[in-house]
């Protein structure tokens, strides 16, 4: 009896596959198989672009609380005041007033976004190399990585630097800004000529040769800030290569079919036009992130009247920035001030401190440079974002020429931009003229902080007293603090001097 | 009872006999019938506390060797003698000894009183049972007489306050939302702290428990220490709840109907400004008159009502000697106190037992089928995440807003971002969940030869959830207006199978008793489901019932999804109980588990345990004293595991679509955005909990005073946590689920019961329990995949002020110190400069202000009976914890008044705005709740032809609370999860008044 039962017991166990604990996978893809095909390698490259457009709290531009907000609100061109109705956190006003602390979420988000993107780019380089992909694709991944490192050293100075994911994190050390600069210049020079020369089409929203040179030009342009030694000649040379790509300024003409009634604003519409755009960020609301820059500015009834969705009543344009525009500047169409559709009345002034008790609900000038295009909803629109465009190159060429002493050569570059905006020429432009023009032309596009630092205005008092004036800032503020969370995770990181 | 039945006294069926109180009585009864003649002069009837006949009670004539046992109707008789009266003692397992004098020819009715400590009862410990006196581990045994009475919709409510170290918390009274239970605090952070539930051998999670009708539960055994739970290996660490349902003993038939109806009212309300007060205050603060819409609306009142809860249960059963069955049908119908919330639960169950092969084989089959229909309050309907549930929306809504526009549509103010019309949401949003639940099991026990027996057990459980959600544009919720209605259906299916094969052997040699078990267990769980969503509906009539009527052009990525995964657990178990001379008891167990969800390098795990108990009261040196009536010392040690928190495929690197941006524009077109979703962790494994327990069970003065003290210490190593890792080296994403770190639990538990009065008509028992516990983080972070990942100061509830800090209790509160308000009415805190302060976790301005989990819990449960009348109370409380009152924080800032209502207390406080979450909103969480008060009366129908018992009762629940907490209720989320110790507004808690009826038919 006992034997029989034991027999049954053992047979029973065997029939059940009694000790099999191998895992079944039904609904997921194992990473080691996925990226080992050529199609997977392309996906690895696409993933990097996916990181760039990202989404809330993790994006280059379009949504909020990341790189764009950090670099725009720290400058003098826009701010989100705290409202006396209790709306809006203080983060944006603190950045504008240069009172941000290392624990500010936007700083941490930018840092994490940058390193996640670098990780994806490193991964793409590895996967593409392993898949023996077209050299232009490998170069594309490397240039994207270089671009993110450029953004990082621009904001933070000395940062952790690595180009191979398969290393021990303890070997990844905080590297001098100048050292990274040198690496980036070398790496870009080795790769930009491998990139495709195609503009638009399958390369819309991607790094082609011209976008690659644009990154190189930006590095050289700010070489003085990064290394202490300016390199205007190389900056000009790189700009000239970009210009050789055949770009022209998108025409500005009254046109009822265009946004805000002028074809100039096509540049900030659904698709960035190929004539002027060097690198665009593709955005479609709820499909690929989204663009919030107009709805974030409009108040609720005005938003409803203009686009059918309640505005967020956030961003305003500081009065001193707005006042510098000439009355006939077509770019001034982007600003809303005074009575508006829906009954809102935006005032140019702000009635009380933007920190406390906060601005009144309709205080402040609004901005619709990215006038909403469909599909849109209450959380954003579908306007693509111009990361780099030809007008920027022209102004860089003007700046380099002036800095190299060729004022005469500079004038045509500057004046092309001015003429399109409906302004008169300046025969002998100064650096101040170029700086101002960069503000007029490139506001709301994420360039302002870098420009203010290069032109030496970042630390000077600005804003409108008493409610949003920024006093003179200490020089350590030329760099953002390393985020507190990053230092907590890696205690070997050194905080930038001046921050606690 | 016909006399034709063959008497049976098979020693090998004793194991089953232990299981059923009535089983033994039947056997004795049959003996009795054959021994004694029928004629009598001294007659009587023995009944239990429910006035139910007690068959099989032993009636002994004092001073003689004559005794008898009661028959199926509880009746007994002695042949006539010369005496006019005799003195008898009546004994019955589980009841106090009773003495009576019986007069000849005067039938008596003798009601026995249940033991306060039923030493003879059996307790289910894992895969076997032991006598309560032979327990070696920390186990609490509760039976029907211990359960909380009243409007009970979930079995956990039966246990509330009744066991030391077992904490049942309900966060609000939303119909259909189960309370949480924690046994001895926390043993894990993210690995799961819900105990394993075993219902008549079927293992499962807390939902399985919810599927058992509360009125059908005969006993609940709670295994607390590792020496008791180690037999469940990698599922045993958070404790085990073993539920045994009622069975009908052979030879007895019964029909029982139980009913309870309650009225549920709101126990406490927040005091907010009414319309006039709001207008005055808004005016004083210079709020634009356009914000005042001139109505007078009490939103909270509008959204709430009195609720009604009904419980009906019909159970019947019967059987002959080799066969018995019990069937029950339970209906629970609850109307919530928030409008349009309800819960209905129907459960039918049948259990049948058949013996065969000369009673050597016993087959037991169990079938349970349940339907749950719930209509929950809609969530996620506000624009701001912190206030998106309906009740919070009602708090924020201005009292001057109208409910309707003049055209009859629901009013909403487009200038207000903070809330949408909560009444519109409550009236128009559909959120229905239907759950079908079915489980069955078959158990076969075969007595092979002289103490050797074999068993087979198989169970299969299926659970199907179907959730329909419709957010119409009429709700005025922003996204619904934007998309002209959103509807979705989600389905989730669970399939759980289990099989056990066991061999057990029992033997007595000399003074030794030996009982061993070897068991193989196989478990498999499969989960699959889908989600479908459409937007833009022409009409609201079809709600979520016709998704095809939505507009396909509005499809968004994520609107359709499906999943499937499974897990298997394979185990080998050995367990030995050994006792010598009834004094020294030893239990040892060993379990080896293999699981599919563990990483490839760690598929198998071993879990040993041992416990020893010494019954000092059995020793000779204790014989000559009468103070100590029982005394037992227990020590135990065991290793248990926890794998609840590990999901299938948690250990391998995965690629999926990026959920937040599922598409990417590349190569001139939109393509799916694949990215890494999970890091690989081949070392992923169970958490290891090593626990030592020392306990003492005692009874004094003939067990008038009884009690238990336990102390324990436990370390959970290989702590599962979702660590933040740098996106560098081998890490693909910013977090990794890994076994690093450890947690320490220490505690003391005490329960006491004192029978102040113990007479045949009156009993008064004072009982209570208390437990002290502390869960401390010993280490976090460390070596993950060969890389040093320092981790500390991880945010953990407490309104953003709770943290996991190495060396401190779980959920340590580190908070900014409120110092007042400045001239502009802005809150100031210590260390502030220029309106800002470092608010990061390790900011030097955060100070340690205690912890978010209670340090102690206690309960006081007195009971009283007088003849047929009974009364009982439950008072329970906890303390030593702090709560961040997020509701008060949010409703106290005067700057919000233009777009929100505020508390009345906000006005004198005068804080205009605040950029901080300071200790101004942190409050002491101590409370003592008058949880239950019950009165019952039992009518005797001794001579009635149809009714054998009838009891009526009235019960009040949550009658009062003593606390300094200013929020709605201090019983917030205290589960120890990352949302603990904070109050952001929940479904209100009810105060309940109910009346109950219990009828037993003959």
List its salient traits.
heterodimer; A: 500 residues; mainly alpha; two-stranded antiparallel ribbon; two-stranded antiparallel sheet; 41% helix; globular; B: 1002 residues; mainly beta; Immunoglobulin-like; Ferric Hydroxamate Uptake Protein, Chain A, domain 1; 23-stranded antiparallel beta sheet; 5-stranded mixed beta sheet; 12 helices; disordered N terminus
Strand and helix map with partners:
The complex is a heterodimer of chains A (500) and B (1002).
Chain A: H1 2-15, E1 29-30, H2 31-34, H3 38-53, H4 67-73, H5 91-96, H6 105-130, H7 135-156, E2 159-160, E3 174-175, H8 177-191, H9 209-221, H10 223-227, H11 232-243, E4 277-281, H12 300-307, H13 319-323, E5 335-336, E6 338-339, E7 345-346, E8 366-367, E9 385-389, H14 390-403, H15 407-420, H16 431-442, H17 448-454, E10 462-464, E11 468-470, H18 484-489
Antiparallel strand pairs in A: 2-3, 4-9, 5-8, 6-7, 10-11
Helix pairs in contact in A: 3-6, 6-7, 7-8, 8-9, 9-11, 11-14, 14-15, 14-16
Chain B: H1 14-19, H2 21-35, E1 42-47, E2 58-61, E3 67-69, E4 75-78, E5 85-91, E6 98-103, E7 108-111, E8 122-125, E9 128-131, E10 139-143, H3 156-159, E11 166-169, E12 180-183, E13 196-199, E14 202-204, H4 206-210, E15 217-223, H5 226-229, E16 240-245, E17 254-266, H6 275-284, H7 299-303, E18 307-320, E19 323-335, E20 342-356, E21 361-375, H8 390-396, H9 422-428, E22 430-449, E23 452-471, H10 478-483, E24 486-509, E25 512-535, E26 560-580, E27 584-595, E28 604-615, E29 628-642, E30 654-657, E31 663-666, E32 669-672, E33 674-678, E34 687-700, E35 705-717, E36 720-724, E37 735-739, E38 742-758, E39 762-779, E40 781-784, E41 787-790, E42 794-795, E43 802-804, E44 812-816, E45 818-821, E46 827-829, E47 846-851, E48 856-860, E49 863-866, E50 869-879, E51 882-885, H11 886-890, H12 906-909, E52 922-924, E53 927-940, E54 947-963, E55 982-983, E56 990-1001
Parallel strand pairs in B: 1-7, 13-16, 51-55
Antiparallel strand pairs in B: 1-4, 2-3, 2-5, 5-6, 8-9, 10-15, 11-12, 13-14, 15-16, 17-18, 17-56, 18-19, 19-20, 20-21, 21-22, 22-23, 23-24, 24-25, 25-26, 26-27, 27-28, 28-29, 29-34, 30-33, 31-32, 34-35, 35-38, 36-37, 38-39, 39-48, 39-49, 40-41, 42-43, 43-44, 44-47, 45-46, 48-50, 49-50, 50-53, 51-52, ...
Helix pairs in contact in B: 8-9
């Amino acid at each position: 009896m006992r034997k029989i039962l034991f027999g049954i017991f053992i047979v029973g166990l065997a029939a059940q596959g009694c000790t099999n604990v191998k895992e079944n996978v039904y609904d997921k893809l194992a990473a080691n198989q996925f990226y080992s095909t050529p199609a997977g390698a392309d996906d690895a490259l696409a993933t990097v672009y996916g990181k760039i457009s990202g989404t809330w709290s993790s994006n280059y531009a379009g949504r909020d609380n990341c790189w764009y907000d950090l670099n725009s609100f720290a400058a003098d061109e826009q701010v989100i005041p705290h409202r006396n109705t209790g709306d809006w956190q203080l983060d944006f006003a603190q950045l504008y007033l240069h009172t941000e602390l290392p624990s500010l979420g936007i700083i941490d988000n930018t840092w994490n976004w940058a390193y996640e993107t670098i990780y994806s780019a490193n991964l793409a380089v590895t996967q593409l190399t392993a898949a023996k992909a077209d050299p232009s694709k490998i170069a594309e991944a490397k240039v994207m990585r270089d671009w993110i490192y450029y953004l990082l050293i621009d904001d933070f100075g000395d940062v952790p630097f690595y180009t191979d994911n398969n290393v021990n994190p303890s070997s990844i050390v905080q590297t001098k800004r100048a050292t990274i600069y040198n690496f980036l210049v070398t790496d870009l020079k080795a790769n930009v000529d491998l990139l495709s020369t195609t503009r638009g089409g399958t390369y819309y929203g991607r790094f082609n040769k011209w976008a690659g040179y644009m990154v190189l030009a930006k590095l050289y342009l700010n070489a003085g800030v990064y290394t202490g030694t300016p390199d205007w000649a190389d900056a000009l040379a790189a700009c000239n290569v970009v210009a050789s790509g055949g770009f022209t300024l998108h025409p500005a003409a009254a046109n009822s079919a265009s946004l805000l009634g002028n074809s100039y604003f096509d540049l900030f519409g659904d698709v960035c036009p190929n004539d002027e755009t060097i690198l665009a960020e593709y955005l479609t609301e709820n499909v690929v992130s989204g663009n919030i820059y107009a709805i974030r500015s409009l108040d609720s009834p005005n938003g409803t009247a203009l686009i059918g969705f309640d505005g967020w009543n956030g961003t305003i344009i500081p009065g001193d920035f707005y006042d510098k525009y000439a009355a006939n500047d077509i770019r001034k169409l982007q600003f809303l001030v005074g009575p508006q559709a829906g009954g809102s009345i935006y005032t140019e002034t702000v009635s009380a401190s933007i920190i406390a008790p906060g601005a009144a609900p309709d205080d402040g000038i609004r901005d619709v440079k990215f006038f909403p295009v469909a599909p849109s909803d209450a959380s954003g629109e579908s306007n693509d974002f111009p990361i780099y465009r030809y007008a920027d190159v022209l102004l860089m060429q003007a700046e380099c020429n002036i800095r190299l002493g060729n004022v005469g050569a500079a004038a045509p570059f500057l004046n092309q931009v001015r003429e399109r905006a409906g302004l008169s020429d300046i025969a002998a432009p100064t650096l101040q003229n170029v700086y101002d023009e960069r503000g007029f032309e490139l506001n709301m596009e994420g360039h302002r902080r870098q420009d203010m630092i290069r032109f030496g205005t970042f630390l000077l008092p600005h804003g409108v007293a008493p409610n949003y004036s920024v006093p003179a800032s200490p020089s350590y503020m030329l760099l953002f603090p390393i985020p507190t969370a990053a230092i907590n995770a890696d205690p070997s990181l050194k905080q930038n001097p001046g921050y606690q | 009872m016909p006399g034709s039945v063959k008497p049976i006294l098979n020693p090998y069926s004793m194991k089953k006999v232990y299981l059923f109180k009535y089983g033994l009585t039947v056997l004795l009864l049959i003996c009795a019938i054959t021994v004694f003649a029928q004629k009598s002069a001294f007659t009587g009837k023995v009944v239990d506390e429910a006035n139910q006949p007690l068959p099989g009670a032993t009636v002994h004539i004092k001073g003689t060797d004559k005794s008898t046992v009661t028959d199926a109707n509880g009746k007994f008789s002695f042949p006539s003698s010369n005496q006019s009266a005799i003195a008898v003692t009546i004994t019955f397992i589980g009841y106090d000894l009773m003495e009576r004098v019986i007069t000849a020819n005067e039938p008596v009715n003798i009601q026995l009183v249940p033991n306060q400590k039923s030493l003879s009862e059996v307790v289910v410990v894992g895969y076997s049972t032991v006598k309560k006196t032979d327990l070696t581990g920390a186990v609490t045994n509760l039976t029907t007489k211990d359960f909380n009475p009243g409007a009970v919709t979930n079995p956990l409510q039966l246990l509330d306050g009744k066991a030391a170290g077992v904490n049942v918390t309900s966060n609000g009274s939303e119909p259909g939302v189960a309370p949480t239970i924690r046994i001895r605090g926390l043993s894990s952070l993210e690995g799961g702290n819900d105990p394993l539930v075993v219902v008549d051998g079927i293992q499962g999670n807390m939902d399985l428990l919810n599927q058992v009708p509360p009125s059908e539960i005969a006993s609940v055994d709670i295994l607390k220490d590792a020496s008791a739970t180690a037999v469940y290996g990698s599922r045993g660490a958070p404790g085990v709840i073993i539920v045994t349902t009622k069975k009908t003993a052979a030879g007895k038939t019964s029909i029982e109907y139980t009913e309870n109806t309650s009225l549920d009212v709101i126990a406490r309300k927040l005091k907010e400004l009414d319309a006039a007060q709001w207008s005055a205050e808004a005016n004083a603060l210079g709020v634009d008159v356009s914000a005042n819409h001139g109505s007078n609306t009490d939103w909270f009142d509008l959204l709430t009502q009195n609720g009604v809860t009904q419980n009906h249960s019909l159970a019947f059963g019967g059987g002959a000697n080799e066969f018995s069955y019990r069937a029950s049908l339970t209906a629970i119908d609850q109307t919530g106190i928030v409008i349009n919330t309800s819960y209905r639960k129907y459960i039918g169950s049948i259990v049948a037992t058949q013996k065969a092969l000369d009673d050597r084989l016993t087959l037991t089959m169990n079938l349970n089928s349940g339907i749950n229909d719930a209509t929950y309050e809609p969530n996620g309907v506000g624009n701001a995440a912190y206030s998106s549930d309906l009740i919070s929306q009602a708090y924020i809504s201005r009292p001057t807003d109208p409910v309707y526009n003049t055209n009859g549509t629901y009013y909403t103010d487009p200038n207000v971002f903070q809330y949408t019309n909560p009444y519109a949401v409550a009236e128009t949003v559909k959120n229905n969940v239907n759950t079908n639940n079915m489980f069955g099991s078959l158990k076969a026990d075969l007595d092979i030869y002289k103490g050797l027996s074999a068993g087979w057990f198989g169970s299969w459980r299926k659970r199907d959830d179907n959730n329909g959600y419709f957010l119409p544009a009429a709700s005025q919720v922003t996204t619904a207006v934007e998309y002209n209605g959103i509807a979705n259906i989600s389905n989730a299916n669970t399939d759980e199978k289990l099989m056990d094969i066991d061999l057990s052997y029992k033997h007595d040699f000399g003074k030794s008793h030996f009982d061993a078990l070897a068991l193989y267990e196989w478990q498999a769980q499969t989960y699959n489901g889908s989600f479908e969503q459409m937007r833009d509906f022409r009409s609201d009539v079809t709600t979520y019932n016709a998704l095809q009527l939505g507009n396909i052009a509005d499809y968004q990525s994520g609107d359709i999804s499906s999943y499937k995964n499974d897990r298997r657990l394979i185990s080998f178990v050995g367990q030995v109980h050994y006792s010598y001379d009834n004094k020294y008891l030893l239990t040892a167990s060993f379990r080896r588990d293999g699981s599919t969800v563990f990483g490839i390098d760690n598929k198998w795990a071993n879990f040993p345990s041992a416990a020893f108990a010494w019954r000092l009261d059995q020793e000779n040196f204790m014989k000559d004293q009468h103070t100590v009536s029982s005394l037992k010392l227990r020590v135990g040690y065991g290793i248990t595991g926890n794998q609840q928190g590990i999901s299938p495929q948690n250990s391998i690197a995965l690629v999926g679509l990026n959920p937040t941006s599922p598409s990417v524009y590349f190569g001139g077109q939109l393509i799916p955005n694949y990215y890494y979703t999970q890091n690989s962790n081949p070392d992923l494994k169970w958490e290891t909990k090593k626990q030592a327990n020392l306990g003492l069970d005692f009874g004094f003065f003939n067990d008038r005073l009884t009690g238990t003290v336990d102390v324990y210490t436990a370390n959970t190593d290989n702590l599962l946590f979702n660590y933040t890792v740098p996106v560098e080296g081998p890490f693909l994403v910013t977090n990794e689920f890994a076994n690093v770190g450890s947690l320490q639990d220490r505690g003391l538990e005490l329960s006491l019961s004192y029978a102040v009065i113990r007479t045949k008509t009156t009993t008064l028992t004072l009982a209570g329990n208390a437990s002290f516990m502390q869960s401390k983080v010993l280490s976090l972070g460390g070596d993950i995949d060969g890389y040093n990942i320092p981790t500390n100061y991880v945010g953990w509830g407490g309104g953003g002020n709770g943290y996991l800090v190495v060396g401190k209790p779980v959920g340590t509160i580190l908070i900014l110190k409120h110092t007042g308000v400045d001239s502009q009415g802005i809150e100031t805190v210590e260390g502030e400069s220029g309106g800002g302060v470092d608010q990061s976790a390790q900011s030097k301005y955060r100070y340690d202000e205690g912890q978010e989990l209670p340090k102690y819990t206690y309960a006081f449960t007195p009971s009283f009976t007088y003849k047929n009348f009974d009364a009982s109370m439950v008072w329970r409380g906890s303390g030593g914890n702090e709560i961040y009152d997020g509701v008060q924080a949010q409703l106290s800032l005067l700057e919000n008044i233009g777009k929100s209502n505020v508390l009345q207390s906000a006005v004198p406080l005068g804080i205009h705005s605040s950029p901080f979450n300071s200790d101004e909103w942190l409050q002491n969480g101590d409370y003592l709740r008058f949880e239950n008060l019950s009165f019952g009366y039992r009518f005797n129908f001794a001579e009635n032809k149809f009714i054998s018992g009838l009891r009526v009762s009235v019960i009040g629940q949550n009658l009062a609370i003593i606390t300094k907490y200013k929020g709605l209720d201090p019983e917030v989320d205290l589960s120890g999860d990352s949302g603990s110790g904070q109050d952001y507004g929940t479904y209100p808690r009810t105060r309940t008044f109910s009346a109950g009826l219990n009828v037993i038919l003959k």
